[in-house]
Structures are given as structure tokens and as C-alpha cells.
Amino acid sequence: MIKKYTFGQPLETGAAVQAIAAHSQPFDLMHLAHTQDGICLSCRMDTQDVVYGLGEQMRGINKRGFSYVSYATDDSFHTESRHALYSAHNFLILNRTNGASFGIFIDDPGTVVFDVGETQLDQLVIRAGKDCVIYTIEGNGLKDIVKQFRELIGRSYIPPKWAFGYQQSRWGYACAQDIRNVVQGYHGKNIPLDAVYMDIDYMERFKDFTVDAEKFPDFADFVEEMRGQGIHLVPIIDAGVKIEEGYPVYEEGVKGNYFCKDGDGNDFIGAVWPGRSHFPDVLNADARAWFGGKYRVLIEQGIDGFWNDMNEPAIFYSDQNLKKAMEAILSFKDQNLGLHEFYQMKGLVDGLSNSEEDYKSFYHNMDGVKIRHDQVHNLYGYNMTKAASEAFDQIAPNKRILLFSRSSYIGMHRYGGIWTGDNASWWSHLLLSIQQMPSLNMCGILYTGSDIGGFGGDATEDLLLRWLAFGIFTPLMRNHAAAGTREQEIYQFGHTEDFRNIIRIRYGLLPYLYSEFMKCALNNEMYFRPLAFDYPQDTHAPQVEDQLMVGDSIMIAPVYKQNATGRYVWLPEDMLMVRMKSLEERTCKVVEQGHHYVDIALNEVVFFVKKNHMLPVAALDDDVKNISGIDAGRYEWIGYAEEAAEYVLYEDDGVSKEYTPREDWKRIILAERYLSN
Ligand code: MIG
Asked: Which of 309, 353, 404 to mutate to test the pocket of ligand 1 (most atoms within 8 A of CB)?
């Protein structure tokens, strides 16, 4: 049951799609206090209670023991001490052992703080602004609460099927030849690949919707050449529009009044990659339609996928802040700096980027109402992505176009996916990425994944192998790295055959992964779930922070520790352990409920099939290059049927929006006592 409470005069964020009447009784699920800054909700948590949710955030699956801030931030240093990442996903569930569990969604586009037992171990405290809508959800267990929430916020974005193939990216591919080399690197070793990303270097001076003609002469021909090799190119689009006379996007934006304004009514200026830039006012319907329409120029050249970046929006500096900081720094000149002054001076530079002062200095025009940016900060990336998606609906109404964003808010999941931003080549970030997945799924973000191998820092071969062995289960499976780091395309490493085997396992499992993804999207369910969602009676499950249910049939237990040759796995019931050295070399064995140490070599993928469940596995030719090489007629089945197992297979053409209706989903049944080997 969903209840809606309105406080003050909230803005329409578009997060919810179901019209629900405001609840007639006062809010009483948590203790409510009105403070100077807004509202404050609090309640007690029992020792055994678990808090799930908050989407893209730091720390574990159980969010207890820390506080989290919803304020979209371009901070590429995801250490344990951080409280905010790129998105704002204000939904959590307090799962209680004694008393009713509930979900709560704070629809407030400004700063919201979730103190989940940080200040006081047993207190959940939520602070929001004075104008917001709060939804509370009670239901029959965790899955049901999530499903109700997902129905409230609408169906998740569905990408084209090729976006489930393996994808390679790197900040640094600068020209057509660089990309050809990547494709050759993969194809030369017979490793499948479906997409290569184009980071900011493809543009002419970082200008959105341009392609540098020196680096990419005849871009449309190049896109076609790549399609001929089965490769989709996915260009990046940044939020900031370069100020440059003669650049049509800039000139149209100025003329149409499509950019955010500063306090004096001039187009706001912030510096990002293109230098001094304006920011499209994507919270304004006209500006949104205009900016979205710009994607057409790339679509017409054959592009069918995009990633939206820098849309918190990130601001390196503003003119006025830079000036102030400069002056202050100059005042230190010729002084004999004490330590205090030195740090003060250093802080002036560090504080220039993404500064609160800048976010308070520009305005949106939302349906004629002037709104200061910081009050709606968390809606920017969401609306940039909505702009693109709404334009795609016009440009190619029945075609799925790949789209994902760095920043987001609940509601954006209807328009695109997200990737989890600038992680690092750290083992701890492999674990973080495992833990973020179910929380994101709760908030409707199903098409998601992290930069495999890590963005910052140098990936080692073992880290990349382990990360891929997890990444084969994430809908977005993209290897991406920052400029200046060690090259981490998999053909750069010695044990190519091991990498190739792991990637081929992804393609072999694709019929299952895609089928599960589609069913979850169409049924408002979670593709990745913490164990406690499937085994609510299991008292150990709530403590498992490093295993996940993936789709309806399997559980994974990735290795995420350096030099580990295996790991402990908790089995909430008897399961079939499937061990793959390659797609073809696999063994299956029933393992009993309980704790087990499982050896998992660097070149192995291990997963577990639930009792009375099964999954399809595609048989692949040796030279499969991309998902078009998966032949729907050649599925084998892995199953563990003590009585009987049934599988609902979802298939469609993978590109149109004519999703297969439920009554046509195929039911496949395995006979009694079947155990595959
Ligand atoms: O300030 O476009 O998260 O994936 O490679 C860095 C360059 C800007 C941040 C993105 C990252 C991308 C990078 N971008």
C-alpha cells in the first residue's frame, strides 16, 4: 500500500507516474519534526534491522552505519569517506525483524540527507527540504515493496539487445584509426565485441554534436564501416555547450534563450572541457526539446547509442569564483606563509570546482517560474537524458537507442540507464560495484554497470579477470579507463585465452541474461537482488554482502580479493554449482545448503542454480564476433530439478519497441529429477 504526503509546495519532478491522492491522515510512520531547514524524519532501528536502497551510493548493500547525501557530485575519488556520488536515489527500505517493514521515497530535488545510524547507531534520520512529497510503501515482503515502488515510478528503460554485448571504451581513442585498432585487437584474437565508445576527443574542441573532421574524415562512412564489422560506436555528449562564435549549438541556444541564466539574466558561464560554456536549461520544456533535437545530427550519421556525461552538472570553475580566488591567492604573494595560510591558499584552488556558490548563482526557467539551481540540482542529469530520449521518440519512434547517463534522479530510469562513474582499479571498487547493483535495481535502474577494470589507476591482469567474471552478469558490460592509465583492453594482457573464455561465457549466457532483464523491466522487478529478497526466512542471508541473485534462476558469488584462489559462499538452500573454464568446458555439482569454501581459479566462472530452476545457454561457434552470432536455435539447458523446473524464456527482435506480450513468452519445462552435467 502506497501513501503519499505533501509538504509545503513541492515542485513536480516527474519521478512518479501513478496519480495517488494525498493521504488524509498526518504522517506517522516515522517521527516527524519541522526544523528551520525543512523536515526531519526519524525512527529507531533494531539491531537486526536492515536498510536497503539509496541506489548509487557508497558502502554496502545494508546501508546502516553511515550517512548519505543526495546531492549529485562529480567526485572521482570514491573512498569510504565520501557521502555523495553522481546521482540522487532517495528510496530506501527499512526491513524490520520486529514490526512492519516499509519503503520510503523522498521526492525532493534538493539536498536530502539519510543518516542511517551514523550519528546514533540505532536511529534512522532523514532530512529533506520543506517542500517535498513523501511516499511510504508497506507490503508483503521486500520484493513486493520494491514492485509497488517501481509501479509508482514507471517502467524501466530498455536498451537495444546489442547493448548487452561486450563493449570497450577508453578516454583517449582520438581518431578513426585508434578505433579500428581496438576492433582489430579483439577480432584478431577472435574475441566478441559489440561496441566501441567515443570519449570527448572525437569532438571538435569538445563541442557537443560536432565530429572533428581531421580525426574522423567522412564520419558517416566510418560509422558504416564499423557496422559492417558488427561494431556500434557510442559517442559521449557533455552537458556544457562551448561559447564560440559561429558554433550553431551555441548561437541557437543564446537566441532561443535555452541556457541557464545568472542572477542578472545573462547566460550563465561555467568552464568545463570545452572551456567557458553555457548550460542548456533542460528543466525547461522548450530548451529540452531543442537540446534533444541536436542528437539527430549524429543519428543521421548512423549512430544508435549515446552516453551523457558531466551532467551533475560538473563545473570546473566560474569566472566570478576564479576571479575571487585569484585575488585572494595573490594577496598571499610575498608573504611568509604559515601553515594555516598555506592550506587556506591551497583550499582556494581546490574549492573552485563544483562549488556550492556556483550552484547558487544560476537559474532555471521551469514553466515560467524562475528557480535557483541548487534547489533542483539533482534533476539536471535526469532531464538532460530525458531530453535525448524524448527526441529519440520523434526521430526513431520504434527503434531502441542505447542511452545512459552519469547523473540521475529517480524517474530517469524510464529514459536511460546509468554507469557508476569514475571508480578506480581497486579491488574495493569491484566489491563496491557488486554492492551497488541491487540498490540501483530497487530504484528502477536496470541497465547499469561499472567501468570494468576500473577507470582511474592501473588495472592489473588479475583484477581485470575477476572484474570481468562479475561483469558478465551486469547488463552494461563495458571496460573503460581514464586517459593516462595503463591500457586495459583485454588483448593488452598475456592470458588472452582466459579473457576470451570469460567474454564468450557472457555471450553464452546472454539468452538467459537478456530474458531475465526483459522480464524484470516489463514486470517491474529486480534483476539483481540481495539474498534476503529471495530467502526472507533465512537468518544468515541479511548478512551476505558479496553474493547476489541474478534473474530468477541463479546466484553469483564473485571473487573480489587480490590473490584469493577461492572464497566462502553461503548457500541458503541446496544449489547446483556450475563451474565454467570456458563456455564448453563446464561441470555441475549439487552443493548442500550451508557455508562452503569454493575454489575459483582466475580463469573460471562459477555460479549457482537455484533448486527447481534452469537457464538456457547458447552454443557458440568458435568465431562468434558479436551478439548476432548467437543462434536462438542452439540453446542448451542447465537445470537443477528435484521435482521439475520451468523456465519462461523471453525473446524478441532486440531493436524495435514491440516487446513480446506476456502470453507469448515461452514456457520450457525440464522433466522430473533432471540434473544437467
Ligand atoms: O572530467 O570524458 O566519468 O567516463 O572518460 C572527466 C572524459 C570527464 C568523466 C567520465 C569518464 C570520461 C571522462 N569524463
From this structure: 309
For residues 131-146, average pLDDT? 98
440 lines ligand 1 (CB under 6 A): no
Q: Is 149 in the pocket of ligand 1 (CB under 6 A)?
A: no
Q: Please calculate the CA angle 63-553-625 and round it to the nearest 5 degrees.
A: 100
pLDDT at 673 over 60: no
- pLDDT category of residue 674 using cuts at 50, 70 and 90: low
3-state percent breakdown (helix, strand, coil) of the chain, nearest 5: 30, 25, 45
- pLDDT at position 672: 58
Q: Are 379 and 409 in contact (CB under 8 A)?
A: yes
Query: Rounded to an integer, what distance in angstroms lies between the CA atom of residue 650 and that of residue 146?
Result: 22
Between CA 57 and CA 410 the distance in angstroms is 14
**Residue 128 above 90 pLDDT?**
yes
* Helix (H) or strand (E) run with residue 556 in it: strand 554-556
> H or E element: which one contains 251?
helix 248-255
Question: 10 Å Cβ neighbour count for 10?
Answer: 17
State in Å: Cα 481 to ligand 1 middle: 9
Regarding the beta carbon of 171 and ligand 1, being less than 6 Å apart is answered yes
Gap between the Cα atoms of 181 and 175, Å rounded:
10
Spell 208-223 as b/e; 16+ CB within 10 A means b: bbbbbeebbeebeebb
State the pLDDT at residue 671: 65
Question: To test ligand 1's pocket by mutation, which of 171, 307, 423, 425 has the most ligand atoms within 8 angstroms of CB?
Answer: 171
pLDDT-derived band at 336 (thresholds 50, 70, 90) equals confident
Q: What is the DSSP string of 350-407?
A: HTTTT-HHHHTSEEEEETTEEEEHHHHGGGHHHHHHHHHHHHHHHHSTTB--EEEESS
256-285 pLDDT per residue, tens: 999 999 999 999 999 999 999 999 999 999
Q: Ligand 1: does its nearest atom lie under 6 Å from the Cβ of 271? A: no
Q: Which three cell numbers stand for residue 105?
A: 521515497
pLDDT per position as a tens digit, 337-383? 889 988 999 899 889 999 999 999 999 999 899 999 999 999 999 99
- Prior bond of 536 cis (ω within 30°): no
- Among candidate residues 409, 364, 360, 365, the one with its CA nearest the CA of residue 386: 409
Compute CA 4 distance to the chain's CA centroid, rounded to the nearest angstrom: 27
Residue range 10-58, pLDDT digits in tens: 999 999 999 999 999 999 999 999 999 999 999 999 999 999 999 999 9
Cell of 589: 555439482
**Which DSSP string do the residues of 18-87 spell out, in sequence order?**
S--PBPSSPP-SSEEEE-SSSEEEEEE--TT-EEEE-SS-SS-SS-TTEEEEE---------TT----S-
Q: Span 309-333, mean pLDDT?
A: 94
The per-residue pLDDT of the chain, averaged, comes to 96
Does residue 304 contact residue 232 with C-beta atoms inside 8 Å? Answer: yes
Q: How far is the CA of 94 from the centre of ligand 1 (A)?
A: 35
d(CA 293, CA 283): 15
pLDDT for the residue 99: 82
226 contacts 626 by C-beta, under 8 angstroms: no
Query: Measured in angstroms, how far is the CA atom of residue 309 from the centroid of ligand 1?
Result: 7
Q: What is the pLDDT of residue 504?
A: 98
Query: If you measure from the C-alpha of residue 199 to the centroid of ligand 1, how many angstroms do you get, rounded to a whole number?
Result: 8
- Ligand 1 centre distance from Cα of residue 413 (Å): 21
